[in-house]
Every structure is written in structure tokens, then in C-alpha cells.
Amino acid sequence: MKLKNVLVEEEGAVALLSVNRPDKLNALNRLTIQELRMALEDLDSDKGIRAIILRGSGPKAFVAGADIAEFAAYGEREGRELARLGQEELFDYIENLGTPVIAAVNGFALGGGLELAMACHFRVASTNAKMGLPEVSLGVIPGYGGTQRLPLLVGKGRAMEMIMTAGMIPAEKALEYGLVNHLCDPDELEDFCFELARKIVKNSPVALSYAIKAVNAGLRSSESGYQAEIDAFGKCFGTADFREGTTAFLEKRKPDFPGS
Ligand code: COA
User: Fold this and answer.
1) What pLDDT shows up at residue 219?
2) Which residue stretches of the chain have pLDDT < 70?
């Protein structure tokens, strides 16, 4: 399978999956989302692969968010579709994948990038990682499950603060919050994740997939939160604030929100 924005490497029963657009800090455009889905389907159906590590290429970023340049001109309907398709095609798919997926967060994990890391079964970060949901600074809200998964992982108050301030938290804070399980030096992150993955692959693949299902079933009592997120995300695309926020980012200036 020939992929443009995603790299797949295999070492024994462990696959290393990399989002590979380092010049755009691995921002998630439609093609990257589709290719991640294809690669994951392929790995999940391969009986020889028992665990997956997901990372971003380059030293700077895991993923710096959804591709702002791609969605800046979208209207309400396209905005809602973007969130719905992304959630179904990738984020919910990873969360419910039978093969364990570890996020190796190397650098920025922002917006859709943090949402991608949160959809993985657990996270390990490098000490230079920076995490946040900056969407409201662009006139939009998290649309790939961030309003639902962040409170589950860090608690409602911390999630509200992160979403409202649009700020980034350093790796140590992410560890304290329980957003990541471990911190490593940047050049040890990959080895550390492989070590964890090798422990996982010694266990029963069938039992692992049932454990993932059972944990998710207990926590996902309400589907309506995700639907509310998709609806609100779509509405943002009809606002003057969204036009100003995304235009300001692309013009590399600070936004001046009209509040409508
Ligand atoms: N979408 C599209 N392009 C993005 C991007 C995104 N989410 N994040 C980074 N890029 C691009 C930049 O536009 C730039 O492209 P260019 O070289 O063609 O101009 C390139 O990636 C490098 O990013 P740059 O901003 O120059 O790096 P930096 O080190 O100065 O800043 C960040 C890093 C992460 C702080 C900054 O890129 C940023 O704020 N990104 C957007 C984060 C965000 O709001 N994500 C949520 C989206 S919903």
C-alpha cells in the first residue's frame, strides 16, 4: 500500500505508525485522516501485529492540529461533516480498535493532535511535549471528540480551563493531570514505547481486544455528547468569529474577534 502522509514500519509484533507531514507539523488534512484509517485497518487485520505505536515525524510535533488551511473556507454544513466524518473514520475507530494503540507524543499535540492522542488507548510523552486544545482561539471548538475525552482523562475543571484558555500545558503538567502515563527524554521515547508494547504483545490478543471493549463500554455511557460536539462545531463555521480566527492564523497575525 503506497501512502503519502503516513509511514508504517514493523518490528516483530509491534508496528510504528508515523504521521508524516513534518513541514506542516503533521497537521491532519483529509488525506492524512484517510491514510491513517487505511493503515490502521491493515495493521488490525494482520495477525502478526499485536500492538501499534502512533507518533509524529520530525522532532517538533506529534500533530499540531487539524489542517487550518484546509477548513478555513468551510461553511456550517461542511464543518459538521468534517467533525462527523473525522470522528467516525478515525477517532472513534482508534478508540475501539481491538489492537492496542499507544500514542508517543513527541512535541506539540494541539487541537486534533491532542484529540488523536486521547483517542489512543494510552499516552507516553517526551519531556518537550506541549499539549492543548486551542480551537476557541480560532473561533471554533474541538470537533474530534476533545470536549468528551479530555474531561474523562483530566476531570471537568481542568478540561474546562484548558479549553477556555486555549493554552498549552507542558509535559510535567500533562503527567500530573493523568493525560499521559509516563514522560521520557525525547531520544528515549520510542524505545520506551517499544518496551511497553513488547510487554503488551506477550498477552492474549483476544483478551486484550475484549478488555478494550469493556473499558470503553463503561466510560462511553452517552453518545449524545459527541453529537452535541459535532452540531456545535458545525455552527461555529457560520460565524464571523470563525472567519476572523482562521484568517488571522493564515495571515500570521492576532485575531480581533467581532463576537458574532
Ligand atoms: N494547520 C495547518 N498548518 C499548520 C498547522 C495547522 N494546524 N500547524 C502548523 N502548521 C504549519 C504552519 O502554517 C507552517 O507552515 P508554513 O511553513 O507553510 O507557513 C508550518 O506548519 C510550521 O508551523 P509554524 O507556525 O511556522 O511553527 P512554530 O514553531 O512557529 O509554531 C505552533 C508552532 C504549533 C505553535 C503553531 O504552528 C500553531 O499555533 N499551530 C496551530 C495550532 C492550532 O491552533 N491547532 C488547532 C487547529 S484546530
Assistant:
1) 87
2) 221-223
Query: What whole-number distance in Å separates Cα of residue 166 and Cα of residue 125?
Result: 20
> With the CA atoms of 101, 58, 194 and 179 taken in that order, what torsion angle do they form, in degrees rounded to the nearest 10?
-50
pTM of the full predicted structure? 0.96
Single-letter residue type at 202: K
pLDDT for position 161:
98
Ligand 1 neighbours (beta carbon < 6 A): 24-25, 27, 64-69, 108, 110-112, 134-135, 138
Question: Which helix (H) or strand (E) is 67 found in, with range?
Answer: none
Amino acid type, 34: Q
- Cα distances from 185 to residues 131, 173, 178, 191, in angstroms, run 16, 16, 18, 10
pLDDT in tens, 142-163: 999 999 999 999 999 999 999 9
Where are the domains positioned within the chain? 6-185
Ligand 1 centroid from CA 164, angstroms: 20
For ligand 1, atom 28, the nearest C-alpha belongs to: 25
Q: What is the pLDDT of residue 224?
A: 85
Query: Regarding the domain with residue range 6-185, which homologous superfamily does it belong to in the CATH classification?
Result: 2-enoyl-CoA Hydratase; Chain A, domain 1 (3.90.226.10)
How does pLDDT run across 160-180, given as a tens digit for each residue? 999 999 999 999 999 999 999
Closest by CA position to 51, among listed 121, 153, 126: 121
Distance from chain centroid for Cα 65: 8
Ligand 1 test: best mutation among 5, 19, 21, 25, most atoms within 8 Å of CB? 25
Q: How far is the CA of 63 from the centre of ligand 1 (A)?
A: 10
Residue 238: strand, helix, or coil: coil
